[in-house]
Amino acid sequence: MIPLVVDTDPGVDDAYAIALAARAPEADLRAVTAVFGNVDLPTTTTNARRLLGMLGRGDVPLGVGADRPLVHPVTQRAADVHGDDGLGGVAERFGPLGPEPAGRALDVVAGVLETSSEPVVLAAIGPLTDVALLLATRPDLTGRIGRLVVMGGSVGIGGNVSAAAEFNVWSDPEAARRVLVEERVPTTLVPLDLTHVVTVDRSWLEALAASGPLGEALAATRHVYGHGEALRVDRVPIHDAVALLEAVVPGTLATVPLELEVDTSLGPSRGLVLADRRGRAPGGHTVDVAVPDGTDVDGVRAALLRRLSGDMPVRPRG
Length: 318
What we know:
single chain, alpha/beta, Inosine-uridine Nucleoside N-ribohydrolase, Chain A, ten-stranded mixed sheet, two-stranded antiparallel ribbon, 13 helices, about 20% strand, globular, Inosine/uridine_hydrolase_dom, hydrolase, IUNH, glycosidase, Nucleoside hydrolase
């Protein structure tokens, strides 16, 4: 089993991802940490507690992370996609509340890294503030991170919060640049270029809803259909769940190694992730960027549904 930590800002698609992390037989979920993002930090923290409680994962410590970006204040949330409660207006369907937070996110993650006998996979599916702070303040622990799997960015199709930028990177570009450009931890980036292809339709959601209370609650977050309508399709992306599947089943997504840059200016391209496709420069740092070409998109959808609907055995940590 893969030792796993999830840093998240729940968030509808984050809810799918947390459920996957808790249920996937390949994963040993060691901790969840909440960061600001889709909604404010108190709400993301409560939503993480709701999800862990509903999943029966009181064994998983919850850390409380950053409530703002590293440098510039956040100017926009994502209530138009996720609802004011972060869970599509149906947060009350999730619960009971899981355990109280175990401490600061940095301390919780550091504790996991310090005590793990194996490299830990860190899945970052919200703004990268917590990850940047961890890497900056505890460089002694970077060698214990087996891989970062980041949901964020867009390297060729434009953004979803601006013409240039994807929401997670745009929310804290300075943190994203630290993680994706300056650090040397093995990293897989799962951008909009792929998650806008791996979308699910109503029949997929109906099958999930029929699987039981968890599937019914997840499928009830229909507010996410507003995002599907914005894409002018009758399908919706569940971005973070796609990244989580790659985290627990490495190699699920096809990737290409690319050198990246993140725009931290205050202009219209703030948060842009620029991929250098000219080939790796000597000494350059590359990130494995997930791409549609070579990815079995139907297989990804089926794998997500199997794990979220409970069609695979669950092995909780214990």
